[in-house]
Design a protein that fits this description.
The chain is an alpha/beta fold.
């Protein structure tokens, strides 16, 4: 990065080009007070705390708003400047609550009050009742507000939430939430950005008040979605007491959502299970580790002896580290002798990996989050990123507010759809015809990229012939959208380039999930939006390590690196000094099918509540009841453990051990231990090694640290061979990274594809789902997540997030609700041919008539009792997004 040279008080200083005078001061190790400045915001200089002298200027200037230029001369340490800065701080300190200065010394305003030796007021006549404590995670005391407006600006300019506002009352300026009342009545998303930005005691985390200041801080990676935000975890007395965003993190750049920032309470939840358990006389009872391991190993040995290697299997975890998952699949193949290994990628983004692997040669995101800063058009398909992947969602929103075009393809009018230039509210399950029709427009109107097609794409003529039949009018009839809107979306994506596409489970969890992703890849290839900055096909991964768990080999047909077994078998056998099974493995759904048929008998489930999250719960129940040994490894007795576990093994949370996660942009990042393991819980990789020893096959499972495990991963995964442990210490690396001098890869497929110079377009015809509404089941139910909860609710339901959203809801168009006599909060019974559930109604005009949306986080609701047996035609992923149901009042 280019630098500029300047002098500060006569000393030469270098600062990066584009930096400010304040950056130069800090580079020189000098401090001046700031109040309105935040590195995440554009400088305004409004508080005038950071005054400095500038040669050639007759009056002091604000350092934060002064661009550093070559040869500039700045003066800082003069009596006049020191006095001016002190006077500006004193002006605000004289009416400031004195008690906060001592209680929260980490707040920057308090530091400067003490530095200048200033006196503050008492509570200035304000009553303690003036403090707004209605938010479960932080409180607001207007008496401590110094009107720097950092909370207002970070909420609007960065988060895109516009909760905090400035208004006049009685001739004074005030800051208040958009409710003009309490925080609980506002649109606040509890991300905590305002708390981070606030330099005073006006906004403070409740945990900070209750537990005091942390005594240690640890940099690690968030345990929730696949965005991969970095956290700074504050601990005290072996408890997590506060979490802050890492300001220089390449992914989240100093931001977090409510889950990453506040939903860590599950780690210390009272029902956390921290000792092994074995089922005796129908009950799970605590036992010693040796007894639990012996029972689990005996179960495996019995199944292997009676039914063979095809009767046993292992499920890795998208919540566990890469090292945990690597050893889990190695255990399945080396110790059990089976390729029956899978993970939850099967029920979410497995179709993405399969489609992109088949078409491009790599089953992962082609570009990086930073490419959003370069995109002219952003297209979001089947994803609700402001709720499900909030930090990427916020970055998409920032791009839109900065002038980018935004196309949203989603059945519901979600929050991100409200900002869209074009929103295609298609019928659930009709992605393929809509995307084919967009391709038709590109082909028939000459909007393709001839140069890219000629040099990088195969089977163009065949595809053009195929897609001519998919006119916008034909697709409009199927999808329920206007033909002209399809044309507008196609024209924008094809011509306002670079165009960057993000997609989610609204594409993959369908009968044609894999094929739906292929149609997205077709659009990128047709228009040349591939292998270049600001474009590409980018899946938004659901869980924190869903990319890594499958990539480490928790997949029946692939080994570490997502390589087919046949092509990599020799290398793995050499490194492992053990045979890799030849017999094809079963995926999760196939294992359950086999169990229902009596052919599958023992399953080790690691960090995955299969019974609760799989479709058709009754069928899953029958499968588990047919097994002779079910081992569940988790933090809690999840629904699978409660109902079916013969052995329960207590695992650590990611805050209790080291390792790495792999995020959705292919970035491998460090996970670091912040507290010691609670009770007798152990890291997943350690438990796997104990099980290997108990099974009498400890060879290859005697690692003393996760770093040693990672070193073996590098030996078998050539595109990751350059990711030495020491190189992952700061900000991680994006694979491919084949050598230790390689910087990592921000953009894939720049010159060619792993399958060759050219990628072939895929001709995908539409196959309607058999799950269609009728007279008995007139509604279509779509399911997904919400902002404050995560997946099965195992983690977030044990935090104060449940105060924000205590239950799943059935979101319904107000017209449908009125016809059925349902109001907000009314209890509705939802029936399908597969089961029923009761949950409260929430009227939402963003849901189309005849369609419903429900979240699946609340065990008491158990929405997956309703979902259907349809699976993706290629990858077996369940079709969670389209189920025909009936609704009636349950009150």
């Amino acid at each position: 990065m280019a630098t500029v040279r300047l002098t500060i008080d006569g000393k030469a200083v270098e600062v990066h080009e584009g930096g400010s005078a304040l950056d130069a001061l800090r580079a020189a190790g000098l401090e001046v007070p700031t109040a309105c400045h935040d590195p995440r915001l554009k400088p305004t200089g409004s508080c005038r705390f950071c005054l400095v002298g500038l040669k050639g200027s007759s009056r002091p200037v604000t350092a934060c708003a002064l661009p550093a230029t070559e040869g500039m001369e700045i003066f800082v340490d003069t009596p006049e400047l020191n006095e001016a800065r002190k006077a500006n701080v004193a002006l605000l300190a004289k009416e400031y609550p004195a008690e906060y200065v001592e209680e929260f010394p980490e707040k920057s305003f308090h530091h400067w009050v003490k530095h200048f030796g200033l006196d503050c007021a008492s509570r200035n006549g304000r009553l303690i009742q003036d403090v707004d404590s209605t938010n479960p995670y932080f409180r607001f005391d207007p008496a401590a507000c110094i009107k720097c407006f950092r909370c207002v600006r970070i909420c609007s300019e960065v988060q895109g939430s516009f909760v905090w506002n400035v208004f006049e009352r009685s001739g004074e300026t005030h800051v208040a939430p958009d409710s003009l009342g309490s925080l609980v009545d506002s649109t606040c998303k509890s991300c905590g950005a305002c708390v981070d930005a606030c330099p005073t005691g006006a906004l403070v985390d409740k945990t900070r008040e209750e537990a005091g200041a942390p005594t240690a801080w640890t940099r690690t990676t968030c345990p929730y979605c696949g965005v991969g935000c970095e956290l700074s975890v504050g601990t005290k007395d072996e408890r997590i007491v506060q979490v802050l965003p890492v300001l220089d993190a390449p992914v989240n750049k100093g931001h977090l959502c409510v889950k990453g920032r506040y939903a860590y309470g599950y780690v210390h939840a009272p029902d956390r299970v921290t000792s092994p358990m074995v089922r005796k006389e129908g009950r799970l009872v605590p036992v010693s580790w040796p007894e639990a391991l012996r029972a689990a190993a005996d179960g495996f040995r019995s199944a292997l002896g009676s039914y063979g290697t095809g009767s046993v299997g292992v499920l890795g975890s998208a919540r566990a580290t890469n090292e945990d998952n690597y050893l889990s699949q190695k255990f399945a193949r080396v110790v059990l002798g089976t390729n029956n290994v899978d993970c939850c990628a099967r029920v979410c983004h497995g179709p993405t990996a399969a489609a992109m692997k088949a078409m491009l040669g790599t089953g992962a995101a082609t570009n990086s989050y930073d490419d959003l800063d370069l995109a002219t058009t952003v297209m979001v398909v089947g994803s609700n990123p402001l709720e499900n992947h909030p930090i990427v969602g916020d970055r998409i929103l920032q791009a839109k507010l900065a002038g980018a075009n935004l196309i949203v393809i989603d059945p519901r009018r979600t929050e991100i759809a409200r900002y869209a230039d074009i929103h295609l509210a298609l019928r659930p399950g009709t992605n393929v015809p809509l995307l084919n029709a967009m391709a038709n427009v590109m082909v028939t109107e000459g909007l393709t990229d001839p140069g890219f097609l000629a040099t990088r794409v195969d089977e163009v003529e065949e595809y053009v012939s195929f897609v001519r039949d998919w006119t916008p009018e034909r697709a409009a009839e199927i999808c329920g959208v206007k033909a002209d809107d399809i044309r507008a979306a196609a024209r924008t994506y094809a011509t306002a380039k670079p165009s960057m596409c993000f997609h989610g489970l609204g594409v993959t969890e369908h009968l044609q999930g894999t094929e739906g992703v292929m149609t997205l890849v077709n659009l990128a290839l047709l228009t040349g939006n591939m292998g270049r900055p600001g474009c590409g096909i980018n899946p938004l991964r659901g869980q924190n390590n869903v990319q890594g768990s499958a990539h480490m080999g928790c997949e029946p047909g692939s080994l570490t690196g997502y390589v087919p077994i046949a092509g990599a078998k020799a290398l793995f056998e050499q490194v492992w000094n053990a045979a890799v099974p030849d017999e094809p493995g079963m995926n999760l759904l196939q294992m359950l099918d086999a169990a229902e048929e009596g052919r599958f008998k023992a399953l080790w489930v690691i960090g995955y509540d299969v019974y609760y999250t799989n479709p058709i719960a009754d069928r899953t129940r029958r499968a588990f009841e047919g097994m002779e040994m079910v081992i569940v490894q988790d933090l809690f007795l999840n629904e699978t453990a409660k109902e079916f576990a013969h052995v329960f093994l207590p695992a650590c949370s990611s805050f209790e051990h080291d390792g790495t996660f792999m995020n959705a942009e292919r970035r491998v990042q460090r996970v670091r231990k912040a507290i010691e393991p609670i009770g007798e819980s152990k890291a997943d990789w350690e438990i796997v090694q104990l099980m290997a020893a108990e099974m009498g096959k400890p060879e290859g499972f005697t690692f003393s640290s996760v770093e040693e495990v990672w070193e073996e991963v590098r030996k078998v995964w050539k595109p990751g061979a350059g990711m030495a442990w020491s190189r992952l210490e700061q900000q991680g690396l994006q694979w491919p990274c084949p050598t230790e001098d390689h910087p990592g890869t921000r953009i894939l497929h720049a010159e060619s594809f792993p399958i060759g110079v050219k990628a072939a377009l895929k001709r995908i015809d539409f196959v309607p789902t058999p799950e269609q509404p009728d007279g008995e089941y007139p509604f279509v139910l779509n399911t997904g997540r919400t902002l404050v909860h995560f997946n099965a609710g195992t983690m977030t339901a044990r935090t104060k997030n449940s105060e924000i959203r205590p239950s799943d809801t059935l979101d319904m168009n107000p017209v449908d609700a009125a016809r059925l006599g349902l109001q907000d909060g009314s209890r509705a019974k939802v029936r399908s041919p597969y089961g029923e559930a009761v949950l409260p109604v929430r009227r939402d005009p963003g849901v189309r008539e005849g369609e419903l949306f429900a979240t699946f986080h609340t065990v008491e609701v158990f929405i997956n009792r309703l979902t259907n047996p349809v699976r993706d035609r290629v990858f077996d992923t369940p079709s969670y997004k389209v189920t025909a149901v009936a609704v009636e009042s349950a009150d």
